[in-house]
């Protein structure tokens, strides 16, 4: 795939997925204030799916305004536990509490992608995968978290399915790329339609 895009995300995993799929990209993080936007959308009673889609679109549009005629890819992933939005942890205590909350539970991981051009969305896609976490005791959760470096924990969230995170789950249903934050098959299909 020869078309080059801009990835409006600092996620190393998303860049790796694009590279593996031969989609050339330049990384320019959007640096939108995700927490403020999430807070506002939660007050409006937006679903986790809508929040994920809106964030992906905001990221893509923000960078797209600065780079005319370029295709800009924005992405966002959220955890939906019984319609409650679970965000990335800000510290290790939060990470522990998130895993305690997910412990033994089935939840959805929602990943949205948006492609924008000249400041407007021209395509978007949202996919959800279901994950069921094993019932773990506090020591097992602490042991798992001790293996994750700070950068990965704060950039990618509490579980990295591409690393040791797979061991947290008794059941994983859905597309692995979606779980890692980028439903790449659909992106490739869309890019093929653009001249």
Give the helix/strand class: alpha/beta
Radius of gyration: 17 Å
CATH topology (fold) name: Maf protein
Average pLDDT score: 89
Shape annotation: globular
Biggest β-sheet description = 7 strands, mixed
Approximately how much beta-strand content do the residues carry? 25-35%
Helices and strands, in order, run as EHEHHEEHEEHHEHH
Low-pLDDT residue spans = none
Distance between the termini: 12 Å
Q: How many individual β-strands?
A: 7
| Overall CATH class | Alpha Beta
The CATH architecture would be Alpha-Beta Complex
Individual helix count = 8
Helix content: 40-55%
Total tally of structural domains = 1
Describe the structure concisely.
This protein has 195 residues and is of the alpha/beta class.
Model description:
By secondary structure, the protein is α/β, with parallel strands linked by helices. The chain has one domain (4-193): Maf protein (Alpha-Beta Complex). The chain contains eight helices and seven strands. Strands 1, 2, 3, 4, 5, 6 and 7 form a seven-stranded mixed beta sheet that branches. The longest helix is centred in the N-terminal third of the chain and has 19 residues, at 48-66. It is globular and about 50 Å long. The termini are close together.
């Amino acid at each position: 795939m020869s078309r080059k895009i801009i990835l409006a995300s600092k996620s190393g995993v998303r860049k790796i997925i694009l590279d593996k799929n031969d989609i050339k990209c330049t990384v320019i993080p959007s640096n939108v204030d995700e927490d403020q936007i999430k807070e506002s959308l939660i007050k409006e009673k937006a679903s986790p799916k809508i929040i994920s889609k809106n964030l992906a679109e905001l990221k893509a549009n923000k960078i797209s305004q600065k780079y005319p005629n370029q295709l800009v890819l924005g992405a966002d992933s959220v955890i939906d536990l019984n319609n409650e939005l679970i965000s990335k942890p800000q510290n290790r205590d939060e990470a522990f509490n998130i895993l305690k909350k997910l412990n033994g539970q089935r939840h959805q991981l929602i990943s949205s992608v948006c492609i924008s051009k000249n400041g407007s969305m021209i395509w978007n896609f949202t996919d959800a995968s279901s994950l069921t976490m094993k019932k773990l005791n506090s020591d097992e959760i602490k042991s798992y978290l001790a293996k994750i470096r700070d950068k990965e924990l704060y950039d990618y969230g509490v579980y990295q399915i591409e690393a040791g995170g797979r061991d947290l789950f008794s059941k994983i249903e859905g597309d692995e790329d979606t779980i890692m934050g980028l439903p790449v098959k659909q992106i490739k299909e869309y890019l093929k339609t653009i001249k």
